[in-house]
Structure formats: C-alpha cells, structure tokens
C-alpha cells in the first residue's frame, strides 16, 4: 500500500491522492458506517464524525492484522460542515489519510445522521479470505475480495420497469447486473458490494428487505446513497455492483473494462474542478473561482487525476471505471464530450450521479476513477 504524491502536491492536503496496491493486497468492502454508537447519535457534526471513525476502527480491528482504510467517501447532509469535522479525520488518520471523495446528499440512511462513510480497506494477509458475516439486518458488514481475481464494476438500471414501484425497479437493476455477470463467467455470488443510488432514502427499508430475500446468506455489502436524481428519467433507483471473479472463471467477454488484481490497483481520491497539484498550501485551492462551464471544469478535474496517474506510472488507458458526481444531469453530454477530448475515448464504464452539492457551491463536477497499472 504505497501512497502516491504527485509533484507540487500542496502542504496540508486533507487526503492522500492515491494508493498503489501490491498484487497480493486483499481488499475488504465495509458496509456503510453511520454515526450511531451504543445506540446514540449525537447532535454535533464533530461528535458524529468521531463516532463514525470509532465505528470504522472497530470494523478494521475485526479484519486481518494491519488492515487500513484506503478509500473513504464522505456522505454529508451539508458539505460546509466538512470544515468543522475535518479535524477529527486529521486526529484519526494523521499525515497519511485515505483517498477521499466528498459529496452532499439529501438524506443519510440513518434518519439523524449528518455524516456517513463508505469505506474500502486493504491488508496484506497471510491467506486469502472470502468471508460474509451477516449482521442483525440480514446484510454483511464486510466482504473480502478473493486474491488473484478479476475486479470490476457493472451498472444496473430500471429500464422498462420505471414506474412499477421501487422494488420492481430494483429487481430489474439486479437482473441486468446478473445477466452481465454471466456473460463474463461470473455469478451473483461474485458480487462483493452493491451501491444503491436512491432518489428517496425512504425507499431503503423496502430495498434492504428485497436484497435479503434475493441473496440470502450470499448477500453483498450494500451501500445506500441518496441522490437528487438518477440518470434514467422517472426512475427511483440505479445500482452499481462491484464484483471479483476468480481469474480461472473469467471469459473474454463483455462487461466494460476489467482489472486483474495481479496488477497494481490504483485507489484514487475524487477530483473536484479546482486546480490542486500546484504547490503552496492546500487551502489556497478553495479560494479559486471555478470555471463557469461544465466542460472547462471537467478538464480541470481530469487534469488533477492525470497528474496522479503519471506519478504512479500509469495513464488514461489504464483507467477501467469512472464515476461522475454532477450538480445537474442535463450537463452530462457536455461533461462526456469534454472527457472524450482528454481521455481520447469515451469515459469507461461511467456511473453518472446528480448530487446536492460538491465541495464548493460553484463546483459542478467531480470525477472519481479507478485504474490498474500492469
């Protein structure tokens, strides 16, 4: 787990730009970490942040020795509170924090939460594992990927089920994912994490019950994220499956690009449309006035990521998954075309998510990518 720091990384950056994971590294997907601790959710954002981090520490302690959080997505009801909560992250992680993405959501899964964390952990274990320990809600709190697997993502949309109720839409999303996995040589047993993008968090209890009924003891970790709107017009939900197929079963098929864990997986921070790797102090970036157009902002966001890729010895051809957090889904065609001009190809395996807000009010796009250096 080697941290990647591009040249001219500013002092005081609140996250590590990327980690390059060695081929033997074992990845564990943790369930959504809420601020509820000992049955209590404290009212202040600092206390909620601390509770999330203590819950994270408990989750990491239950894994193999040396497990470390390498990627954290912060889901916050008000991103302005990041300036209040950040000191808890600084105290917990020290100088080498995880790669980070920050988005504002209209609701958290816990009704009193103002912050929740989605976390990926990594360790260098003595033996491979593939454990699923079910919690009280029938879903696992952590699932570990098999070593020497093919690792990738597949999207599921509601398609023709739009308007027939959220559970029907969810099952259509999951059917699409299952069909695509079969084409690669995988099965639903190979899904290690399922992210649900929900237009209304009140749908989450019904979705949770449907997933437990469908998958039983082989359920993946499930992370519900409330969003303003999903990409398909009129739909209530979209799904993103993260899967790990043992290399011996992989077919030469069909689902987006795939990454074999035999290479060095690059786990990267999301990049907002602010120039970051320009030296100086990290807080200076937040005084920058974002470019007015979504296309220009896209180029700045990708420029940040390109510096990280180059520092790791990788390039755009090594990118196999992209997620785009946008303030307005209608701007996606402009963002996609701007990305095409930078990447030299359409964004690979894109998920496009409309969120309430990014790190600053005028920031309209944040790109989050995954790459593997062979």
UniProtKB/TrEMBL annotation:
Family matches, as InterPro entries: RutC-like_sf, YjgF/YER057c/UK114
Protein name: YjgF-like protein
């Amino acid at each position: 787990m080697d941290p990647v720091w591009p040249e001219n990384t500013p002092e005081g950056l609140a996250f590590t730009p990327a980690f390059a994971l060695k081929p033997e590294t074992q990845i564990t997907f943790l369930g959504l970490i809420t601020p509820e601790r000992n049955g209590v959710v404290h009212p202040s954002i600092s206390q909620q942040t601390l509770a999330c981090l203590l819950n994270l520490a408990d989750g990491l302690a239950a894994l193999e020795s040396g497990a470390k959080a390498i990627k954290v997505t912060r889901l916050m009801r008000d991103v302005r509170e990041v300036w209040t909560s950040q000191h808890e992250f600084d105290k917990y992680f020290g100088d080498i924090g995880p790669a980070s993405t920050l988005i504002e959501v209209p609701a958290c899964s816990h009704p009193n939460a103002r912050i929740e964390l989605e976390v990926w952990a990594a360790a260098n274990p003595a033996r491979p594992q593939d454990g699923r320990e079910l919690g009280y809600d029938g879903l696992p709190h952590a699932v570990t990927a098999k070593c020497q697997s093919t690792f990738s993502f597949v999207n599921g949309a509601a398609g023709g089920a739009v308007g027939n109720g959220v559970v029907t839409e969810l099952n259509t999303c999951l059917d699409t994912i299952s069909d695509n996995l079969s084409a690669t040589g995988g099965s639903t047993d190979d899904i290690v994490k399922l992210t649900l993008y929900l237009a209304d968090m009140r749908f989450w209890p019904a979705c949770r019950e449907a997933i437990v009924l469908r998958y039983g003891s082989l359920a993946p970790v499930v992370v519900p994220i409330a969003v303003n709107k999903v990409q398909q017009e009129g739909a209530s939900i979209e799904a993103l499956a993260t899967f790990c197929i043992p290399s011996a079963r992989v077919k030469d098929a069909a689902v987006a690009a795939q990454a074999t864990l035999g290479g060095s997986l690059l786990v990267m921070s999301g990049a907002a449309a602010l120039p970051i790797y320009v030296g100086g102090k990290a807080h200076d970036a937040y005084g920058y006035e974002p470019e007015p157009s979504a296309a220009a902002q896209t180029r700045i966001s990708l420029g940040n990521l390109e510096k990280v890729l180059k520092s790791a010895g990788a390039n755009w051809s090594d990118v196999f998954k992209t997620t785009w957090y946008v303030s307005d889904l209608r701007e996606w065609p402009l963002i996609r075309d701007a990305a095409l001009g930078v990447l030299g190809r359409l964004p690979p395996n894109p998920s496009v998510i409309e969120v309430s807000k990014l790190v600053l009010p005028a920031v309209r796009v944040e790109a989050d990518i995954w790459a593997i250096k062979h």
